[in-house]
Amino acid sequence: MNSPLTLKKPTNLLLGLCLLLSISCNPSKEGLLLEPKSTYRIDQDDTKDSIRIKAAHVIPTENQFNALKDEFIAFVHFGPNTFTAKEWGSGMEDPTVFDLKELDTDQWCKAMKAAGMTKVIFTAKHHDGFVLWQSRYTTHGLMSTGFRNGKGDVLKDLAASCEKYGLDLGVYLSPADLYQIENPSGLYGNLSKKTKRTIPRTVKGRPFENKTTFEFEVDDYNEYFLNQLFELLTEYGPIKEVWFDGAHPKRKGGQTYDYTSWKTLIRKLAPEAVIFGRQDIRWCGNESGQTREKEWNVIPYQENPNQMNRFADITGEDVAGMEKLFKANYLHYQPAETNTSIREGWFYRNDHEQGVRSADDVFDMYERAVGGNSIFLLNIPPNTQGLFPDRDVKVLEEVGKRIRNTYSKDLLMDAKGPKEVLDNDDQSYLLLDRSKSFEISLKASVKINRLIIQEAIRSHGERVAAFSLEALLDGEWKEIANGYNIGYKNILRFPEVSTDKLRITVDEERFIPAINKVAAYHYETRPPQLNIERDLKGMVNIEPKKVDFGWKTYEQDIAGSLNKDLSIRYTLDGTEPNTESMLYEGPFQLEHGEVKAAAFGKNDRGAIAQSLFGAIKESWKIVSASSSENNHEASKAIDGNKETYFKAKGRENGGQQLTVDLGTALTITGFTYMPPSADKEGMIALGNIYYSSDGSNWQLLEGFEFGNLINDPTLRRHDFKKPIKTRFIKLEAKRIAGGHRFAAIAELGLLVK
Question: Which of 333, 464, 517, 732 is 20 to 30 Å apart from 348, CA to CA?
């Protein structure tokens, strides 16, 4: 803060004087003006400067701080959807579709431990209402399957494996419950009255070892939910996170959730647990692993979050900038979880179509999320054999290897500088009350390309708003990286430098910074990920993906400098490329098919990239289309550029269409749909495909349905039941995801025989 502070009218003369003296003249030894706490109320006479000071004294609870220290945690989605290949079940599946024969949760935990994960959150009940433990309060679950003759308990197995491998356990219990909605005797939305209920409800022959009881005034569904929470929190060891989301696939009877009662029960039975989706932990706002440039964890609220019953998703890019805080009634510490899945979807579908993220992707997300003041939550869905698939395990093992190789040795261990930031003590801190810079000297020059910096958030909250890193190179200080807020942890990533001296400067602050830790590391670069594209004429181009470093100081081509001996090799027969595969020497012609490619260094191979290409679009023409929005003409659906898209004007009941002349008759076996990634209003969830030989007489080929498009806007594929020869194709939208009225297509592709 460079401008003079305007303080609120002091309610206490001594406090007002202390504020003035501390900020303007002589800051307190500890850099504190107010009592640090997790929630601060904004008063009517607070000024912008006093709000800034309050924000600088908002700190995490002990549970929240421990959750941040977990850093890299796992999600496990498992259930009937695993066997039906759906993302969301209907709730009315026959329980026997969960046809699990074997289960090895030790294998799960071994893989998660190898990845460097510290905690796993298990979907004990997803939106379909099917339970994966031996609940007393429903028969819609494992007890009605053939798994271990109806006696199996996946959560019990997992809890034992977690204890064996030293992992913490969390549970996901979906508030939404389609079985309780669709079942004629279901409790969800049955219009029952709120009456006093004892939790847990007694079930003959199934007593609880834990004798704690609660009295709540709730309806039937909330009683059911509380009874199940009681089971989960008392019979499977310590629970460290309870995970709620806001999904509502279907509503009924005006059902509401009595979260206040849920929280009371959780706080009593799982005192070390954080609650996701409520006041403890928030969603990052997307399911693709994206991180914000600035991720402040001091969040503005209009109501007291500690007393709220409902929590809306917090999305957008600017969540907690000072202008947002100035308009708040409460400031509350609430860290984010950055979540995504290792696979294309939350549940296992298959191994021949469902894509798996590369180790490059996951490691990059790890550094951005953990190094961006958030928690990284990665989903790994088990397959129908009750195992993590081999491809997923290989990625986890490689990511864990990179984390250990990069971050196990602090290159500043023997450095000289402020002992508070080098002593590896999370209680100590360097207070930058006068000078905003400090230097660190090494005995000899070292190669570095990563720097970790942390604030003393447990005692002083989040204060740094911008900072820079300089290295002494050839006798001159040169800025090599910069960042914005720090919070729990910021990982700066930058091109490799060799230096024996570093300087860190706080360039902008909310209040007197307290730096807890600084450490430097070196990441051994690997052959880069590749990008495979094909133009309208069928020419395929393979090149390294542009690496987007969120904390870079200038444009740089990381891939270009990775390895002078870099080569790219590819295959067209579906096999994985090796050192004997075709050498990529420039663009080549491809009528249709799948390209797999990888970059090779001296001793290792990069991640495999693959792209499936259908018919060449050079001769395609738009015959007709629904009226389009400005700058989103129909031709953009077939222009070969997924960054542009056709967007049809909104209609109440769908019905938008796009008709294409293929130029010649083709035998097609399916189609691909790329939704626009930058526009969530027009994602086509349900529709029909028609075909015609003359463009006049049309026949319905097949209907199609795509799920979870808004949160996962990736390429979707639909294979036809049988090939069809046609010259004209028509796509008709029937339902748009999220209840929107527009229809949009970034790219339409046709798979050919």
Answer: 732
